[in-house]
Amino acid sequence: MRAAVLHTIGDDKLDFRDDVTVLGPGPGEVRLRVRAAGVCHSDLSALRGALPQPVPAVLGHEAAGDVIEVGDGVDDLAPGDRVAVNWLPACGVCTHCRRGEDHLCMTHVMAGYVIPRFAAGDLEIFGMAGCGSFAEEMVVPRAGAVKIDDDVPYEVAALVGCGVTTGVGAVINTARVRPGDSVVVIGCGGVGIAAIQGARLAGAAQIMAVDTVPARHEAARRFGATHTATPDELGDLQAAVVPEGFDHAFDVVAVPQTLRTAWTATRRGGQVVIVGAGRAEDTVEFSPFELLFEGKTIVPSLYGSADPHRDFPRLLALWRAGRLDIEGMISHRLRLDQAGAALAALGSGDVIRQVIVND
């Protein structure tokens, strides 16, 4: 089968090969034909070394497709079933799972760092986060495949598999935004646009979208933002819109400057939610004085604090009702051999989400 293989961290050139085979499925696993794969900024972060990734590797983790084969012990999925990929499946037995913190379970993801998912001759190839959706087929644990209705477009299901769940979940599950609250979202790519839609769904009264690329401001308003700003404009606009500061600030970019911007924009007693995956070596300083007297909380939102087997159907129900615009988030549809160009285009003004479609 065909797959895009990354051989060296930091090398923007992907190796498109037709001699790759998928390994498995083993017991408790599911083999999928990948029909659509979203191009997420985390894929670029893995390529550049901001997120750990053993190589050689097939990138990609936001996907949907059809079941081809199931391993021993999988009795609730069958070939032909349509599924969305849950890239952070819960094992069900670790301490986090027993506490009900399924979104913090790293069992299967960590296994993906040591267990290859593909091979090309004698070359063993890893899958990003144990997935690897920049390929025609992939294998995931049973918990990593969420069955969906046959009439859900693959592209819609793929975006629910990561970006939509991460953004909407940060607002609904993590921050629990209430009607009338004020929200600022920093970073208006796919996840940021999903967070804006989540704030609209939650009934936020003021939704400020912040991005360095002015071309993204119009898109943010289309999806529900009431105000837009560049980082340099945020202070003056905030003073006019919510002088006391926002109830919730969502940092989708997650670099030191944006986290500080989110902190400054949040009112005393408000909440800063870290949505993006920053670099491990980046640091931000806060004094004990400001942490105590500002009374703000900083909370992480890994994968939107989601339970995908619960949340994917909920998000698709909102999509069916016309309340969550997922098709409108798709900026470009591409072939698998355009994956490298898609990664290079991330951050440009006309990109919200790009989707690789395998016919």
From TrEMBL:
One Pfam family matching this protein: ADH_zinc_N
Protein name: S-(Hydroxymethyl)glutathione dehydrogenase / alcohol dehydrogenase
Classification via SMART domains: PKS_ER (SM00829)
Family: Belongs to the zinc-containing alcohol dehydrogenase family.
Keyword terms, alphabetized: Metal-binding, Oxidoreductase, Zinc
Keyword Secreted: no
GO MF terms, alphabetically ordered: oxidoreductase activity; zinc ion binding
Cross-referenced InterPro entries: ADH-like_C, ADH-like_N, ADH_Zn_CS, ER, GroES-like_sf, NAD(P)-bd_dom_sf
Names of required cofactors: Zn(2+)
PANTHER family linked: NAD-DEPENDENT ALCOHOL DEHYDROGENASE, S-NITROSOMYCOTHIOL REDUCTASE MSCR
Stretches assigned to the Enoyl reductase (ER) domain: 10-357
